[in-house]
Amino acid sequence: MATLLELKQILKSYYVKFEFYITLVWKFFLTLITLNVINSKIGCQEALTSPLIVLMCSLLCAILPQTFIVILSGLFIMAHLWALSMETAVIALAVFLIMYLLYYRFSPNDSTVLILTALCFYLRIPYVMPLAVGLLGSAHTVVSVAFGVVVYYYLNYIADNTSIFISGSADSDTSAAVISRVQSIVDGVFASKVMISVIAVFAITTIIVYILRRLSIKHSWDVAIVAGTITLMIGILVANVVSNAGFSVIGVILGSVFAGLLMKVLEFFAFNLDYKRIENVQFEDDDYYYYVKAIPKVSVATPDRKVKQINRATAPRSEERTERASQTPSRPSGQSPRSSAAGNAASHMQRTRSAGSAYARSQQSRSRAVNNNVTAGRQTRNSTGTGNQRSNRSE
Fold first, then answer.
1. For 356, which of 194, 203, 300, 330 is 20 to 30 Å away at the CA?
2. Which residues on adjacent β-strands are paired with residue 283?
3. Is-contact 42 80, C-beta < 8 A?
């Protein structure tokens, strides 16, 4: 457990340090995956399916605010649907305008939830989003989840019935044909019991998880995850029976359990508390009494590892030793220890004599300086006395 906590602290420190670059990377990959999924499902506009166009659009959205990911994805969808059939494009435009005017105009940051919800459906893990939104989002974020479900079922219906719209638009453009195609879209998507049931189950699960995780109880996130997983599992199974959706019972159970396990991993990184050290604090001011329950987060100090570079530290010393060895006179090969000792004594006497002669010379220079100062003082006195005598005579 301590190793996981250290890993968590290291990852958090790296994220804080490189947050700007990490944000660019995840926005790039989110846009890249989204555009590739759109092109693979309804790739009717061949110019937009070019990898170069997709790559350039992904790079552009990486440096722009995250709202532009939704805008660019909507433009791609509109272009593909317009190449397929005018009716599908007009209905998609109406759906996007309703989404913007009713919700995203006031809460643009939740637009990423719409894309993630649709992508989770395509990745076969749709049960992750209601649990994740309930834990990390707010109560009104359930609207984004519902819009994501609508977008997925709409594009899925168009992709499954592409041949109908192509043949219908090629045969005739009469008003009756247009109305029939529009009616088929309304009946197949917006009046679908499967889509309405999934939206209801996701909304109920998200609200339950949101309410439970905000309760002032121990292990509130664990309670919310378990309750949300059970609610999601039972709700999808009931919707499967009511709407004849054809969901696999084993797939629903395994998918719900997998989503719950992913939420436990999310809890470890986002909301890991130490309930053994709960503190109840009470204080007051002029107007209120405050009763506060403080629960510390589980954390561990990351070890501060310092690497000491020994090679650099010992390199100057080795160089000094080499210089000293080069400056020391080498002993001749045939010289005996006695002769070397005698040579050392002689050199010592020579250094002593040179030091004595230097001291004598310094003493002589000092005596000369003193004599010069005395002589200068006498001359100054004589000149002063002579000047005084001349002044007296003049008087």
1. 330
2. 290
3. yes
Q: Which residues pair with 293 in a beta bridge?
A: 280
- Pick from 199, 203, 201, 225: which is nearest to 212 by CA? 225
- Six token digits for residue 232: 């999601």
Task: Extract the tokens encoding 108.
Answer: 């643009």
User: Exposed, middle or buried: residue 55 (CB in 10 Å: 0-12, 13-18, 19+)?
Assistant: middle
The DSSP string of 285-299 is -SS-EEEEEE-PBP-
> Quick one: residue 124, left, alpha or beta (phi over 0 = left, psi -120 to 50 = alpha)?
left
347-379 pLDDT tens trace: 555 565 655 565 556 666 666 665 665 565 555
Q: What is the largest CA-CA distance in the chain?
A: 149
Angle, CA of 38, 43 and 44, to the nearest 5°? 135
Question: Is this prediction's pTM over 0.70?
Answer: yes
Q: Which two tokens stand for residue 279?
A: 């503190």
Q: In the block, which residue shows the tokens 């001359």?
A: 379
Task: Measure the CA–CA gap between 56 and 47, rounded to whole angstroms.
Answer: 13
